[in-house]
Amino acid sequence: MARAYSHDLRVRVLDAVSAGLSRRAAALRYRVGVATVIRWAVHATTTGETRAQRQGRPPGSKLDAHEAFLIALTEEKDDITLAEMQERLRAERRVSVGLGTL
Asked: Is there a single domain that holds both residue 93 and residue 65?
């Protein structure tokens, strides 16, 4: 997998595009893919930001919203198994998770 481009390079490319250089010419000058420059320019135009978007999943768990429910399950029955918790989540909250997530 290729390394991410530096923020400095991204800013220089976007400055060149905003100064009137075509996206293809900027890609050629800075040795960056044309599609990359186009994506950067669209992102900068729509959001006004030059920083790259955060990659990967957003932090947190899909169970964060169900924390009180899960705590109530363990208080209701202190020897509840993960499989039972998984089934109750599916039945009562319509949330499907693996045992490892619990």
From this structure: yes
Instruction: Give the span between the Cα atoms of 36 and 40, in whole angstroms.
Output: 6
Q: Are both 75 and 93 inside the same structural domain?
A: yes
With b meaning 16 or more CB within 10 Å and e meaning fewer, what string describes 27-57?
beebebeeeebeebbebbeeeeeeeeeeeee
Query: Looking at the structure, do residues 62 and 102 belong to the same domain, yes or no?
Result: yes
Q: Is residue 35 part of a domain?
A: yes
**Residue 39, token pair as written in the block:** 């994506």
pLDDT band at 50 (very low <50, low <70, confident <90, very high): confident
Burial level of 97, CB count in 10 A (0-12/13-18/19+)?
Answer: middle
Cβ contact 52:7 at 8 Å: yes
Q: Tokens 């490319």 appear where? A: 13
Provide CB contacts within 8 A for 83, sequence distance 6+: 99
> For 36-47, how does the pLDDT look when each residue is reduced to its tens digit (9 = 90+)?
999 999 999 999
